[in-house]
Design goal:
Shape: globular
Oligomer: single chain
CATH superfamily of the largest domain: FAD/NAD(P)-binding domain
Number of helices: 17
Helix content: 25-40%
CATH class of the largest domain: Alpha Beta
Number of strands: 22
Structural class: alpha/beta
CATH topology of the largest domain: FAD/NAD(P)-binding domain
């Protein structure tokens, strides 16, 4: 029997003597578990509100355990993710978005320091074994989530070490090797995961073999082949492609010498190269991007696709950025480039109904350069993929990454519609869940179609203004090739950030509904009710005034139309 308490202010002969539900208005209150915007925006599938709630209670390990239900690599994503969750955070309307990535990183580092165990059990020895090609973030996430669903996983990786582009192309200033190695090794050491290094698809193992040996095969090979680049057919003799140059730097620590460099692209690879070249001694480094810089006049879908803090730091370091532009012509002396002609672009609707970037004549200007570096993307290396590569990528037929070739799935960069570590991690989770359900004879997982809680659905008057915690950061003069630029936020600041979480769409147990209801129609329970709250609505006494919904800080209570004129019972 659930113990319940009703507001203690009613006296005999007052509201409890009259079932006001008999003449309730056209609406009645209901508890609606809406998605927090951070959760809806996270490509990895994290429920940030849920793990912040554990931190609010002071339970850091429980918060980490909740976090890694979706993302097994928080010490990594906390450093490299562009954190769209923060761009969606409703707290921005009050005093600044939560520093989600800083807290995520801190939790990941705490787990490494304290040796917290991942909340997964070893699968049965005879559990189905899924084959995974690639030990980058998508493949490692897929293997981890296979364990969560009771499956075993075997990874086939061509390189001598796991990590993919995490290891091969992200500078230590963003992702030091110590946390990278520690977090990868912790996941890969989990019982049920087997890692085969130096095993290249198409050379050491065939796709046919994998399909014969495994009930499902997840393809996460990354993008290793360069996209051809030229300007009206002109190509400098010393052309170097951006990602390969970045890989060379990460491996050998060397960059070509050039005083005036133009980097052509709009992603994190381009931004990393600009900053490294500037640090290595190039006097003038210019990034030319077709995208726009963040600002009130820029459509969010047109913003440059880089980690926001990396853009801020690049500007601090003197990187010139020319946005909404492209290279229209190469100026050559023999086979070497001496300058580029830049043309402005704008996104305009075309006859096909889609927006296209159009160059504007009369906007051309010339910049003298010694080197041009294209960072316009890579393609899947087709070797061993049996004709599955289409226009440079693996093209899945559904959100789970399924290819139209039986139980084959495409994950991460190889899909062509992904570009972040978080998205790759989310791909791994979705594919593993679909495989598990298929092997169990069940339909694909149901899409979480809960509504998202907008800022307008909150009552922000109940929240104090609290400043966003800022992580320490090296000054421009202190930044080197080896030292991480952004530091640890620390436990005190992480706990303070948890207190700033608005708990959008979830119950805070603040008692407002119970206190303010004029008809004592809200009943408070000692144990949790079925909807996860401590409150029930007694519709015999609710007259549908909406006061409880208005005074709910988080939007958890919403007014809905009366169901078939019902006036009895509790919701």
């Amino acid at each position: 029997m659930v113990s319940m308490t009703r507001g203690a202010y009613a006296k005999p002969g007052t509201s409890l003597d009259f079932k006001t539900g008999n003449w309730r208005s056209t609406e009645m209150p209901a508890h609606i578990h809406a998605k927090a915007p951070c959760h809806a925006a996270c490509p990895a599938g994290e429920d940030q509100q849920a793990w912040f709630a554990k931190l609010q209670e002071g339970h850091a390990e429980a918060a980490w355990a909740e976090l890694v239900r979706a993302n097994p690599l928080p010490a990594i994503t906390g450093r490299v993710c562009p954190h769209p969750c923060e761009g969606a955070c409703n707290r921005a309307a009050l005093d600044g978005a939560l520093a989600i990535h800083n807290v995520e990183r801190w939790l990941g580092d705490e787990a490494i320091r304290n040796g917290w165990d991942y909340p997964v059990a070893a699968p049965r020895a005879n559990a189905p074994e899924v084959g995974i090609v690639g030990a980058g973030p998508a493949g490692i996430s897929a293997a981890y989530h296979c364990l969560r669903h009771g499956l075993r996983a075997t990874i086939y990786e061509a390189s001598p070490e796991a990590g993919g582009l995490l290891r091969a192309a992200i500078p230590q200033t963003r992702l030091p090797r110590a946390p990278l190695d520690a977090e990868l090794s912790r996941v890969l050491a989990l019982p049920g995961i087997t890692l085969n290094l130096r095993t290249r698809l198409g050379r050491d193992v065939s796709l046919e073999e994998l399909r014969h040996n495994h009930p499902a095969v997840l393809l996460a090979p990354g993008c290793q082949a360069s996209t051809a680049w030229s300007v009206d057919g002109a190509v400098p003799a010393d052309l170097r492609e951006g990602l390969h140059m970045l890989k060379d730097f990460v491996d050998h620590g060397a960059l070509p010498e050039a005083e005036r460099v133009v980097v052509h692209g709009g992603g994190n690879t381009a931004m990393d190269l600009c900053r490294l070249l500037k640090r290595s001694g190039s006097k003038q480094v210019t990034l030319i991007t077709a995208s726009g810089l963040p600002g009130p006049d820029t459509d969010p879908s047109d913003e440059i696709n880089v980690v926001p803090r990396e853009l801020e730091e690049a500007l601090e370091e003197g990187i010139e950025i020319i946005d909404h532009a492209t290279i229209n012509r190469l100026i050559m002396k023999g086979s070497r480039v001496t300058g580029v002609e830049i043309m402005s672009l704008r996104k305009l609707p075309g006859r096909d109904g889609r927006s296209h970037r159009i160059g504007f004549e009369g906007t051309e200007r010339v910049v003298a350069v010694d080197m041009v570096i294209p960072c316009i993307g890579e393609r899947v290396e087709p070797q061993g993929l049996s004709g599955l590569v289409e226009r440079g990528y693996l093209r899945p037929s559904d959100r789970f990454g399924r290819l139209n070739e039986g139980e084959l799935f495409a994950l991460g960069d190889a899909r062509g519609d992904r570009g972040t570590v978080a998205a790759a991690i989310g791909d791994g989770a979705l594919a593993a869940s679909a495989v598990a359900r298929h092997l169990a004879g069940e339909a694909d997982p149901v899409v979480d179609d809960r509504p998202e809680m907008p800022n307008a659905g909150l009552n922000l008057t109940y929240y104090d203004h609290l400043p966003r915690a800022e992580a320490p950061k090296l000054s421009v003069e202190e930044r080197t090739f080896d030292t991480e630029i952004e530091g640890d936020i620390g436990r005190v600041a992480a706990m303070a950030e948890a207190e700033r979480c608005l708990s959008c769409g979830n119950c805070l147990a603040c008692d407002n509904c119970w206190t303010f209801c004029p008809d004592n129609a809200v009943i408070k329970t000692v144990e949790l009710a079925l909807d996860g709250s401590h409150y029930l609505f007694d519709l015999d006494y609710c007259k549908g005034c909406g006061l409880c919904a208005h005074e709910c800080p988080t939007g958890f209570i919403q007014m809905l139309p009366n169901a078939n004129g019902a006036t009895e019972g509790a919701v």
